[in-house]
Each structure stands twice: as structure tokens, then as C-alpha cells.
């Protein structure tokens, strides 16, 4: 059950983050489960009747299966599932599922 990160590894865990065995993270990686609405009308600050400010924020879980490699300066967004032995190249923003060898494959979003 080995997990390795060099330095500056950040996890924002508003909901579950599951990391399998033998997963390696390069420096400056971020795992962020919080998600905000895409429409600006829903992102704006709102006020309750008592004057208390709030915004719409929610979280989506992240699962990284065993034997994955995440290179340096990668941001993994909420709702992502990385299949066994998948890799993410450096300076990438991974926002949708990444799997390998015959499993469902979806694109990685690049910075």
C-alpha cells in the first residue's frame, strides 16, 4: 500500500478521495473535490433572509485506482475516476474519467 508524492501535494476533500496502492504523484499536484456551478447566475453570492451570505458549492468524489502515475503540476477535478495503471502527463487538468486498455476512455483536458 504505497503512495508517493515528492512535495507540495494538496487535497481539498469536501467529499471522499480514494487512492489505490502504488500511486505516484509528481510535485505540485492538486486533488480538488469542490465544484461550483458553471452559470454565473448560480455562482454569485446569495443572501438569506437574515442577511447571511452563501454560495452554491458542492463536491464530487475522486477515485484513483492502483498503479497510477500522475506527473508534476497536475490538477485533478471532482468527479474523476482513474482506472488501474492510468497515467496523466505533466501540466494537465484532468476533469473526466481516465482509464486504460479496453476500458472506457475519455479525454484529458489540457491547460
TrEMBL record:
<comment type="similarity">
    <text>Belongs to the transferase hexapeptide repeat family.</text>
</comment>
<keyword id="KW-0808">Transferase</keyword>
<dbReference type="InterPro" id="IPR011004">
    <property type="entry name" value="Trimer_LpxA-like_sf"/>
</dbReference>
<protein>
    <recommendedName>
        <fullName>Acetyltransferase</fullName>
    </recommendedName>
</protein>
<dbReference type="InterPro" id="IPR051159">
    <property type="entry name" value="Hexapeptide_acetyltransf"/>
</dbReference>
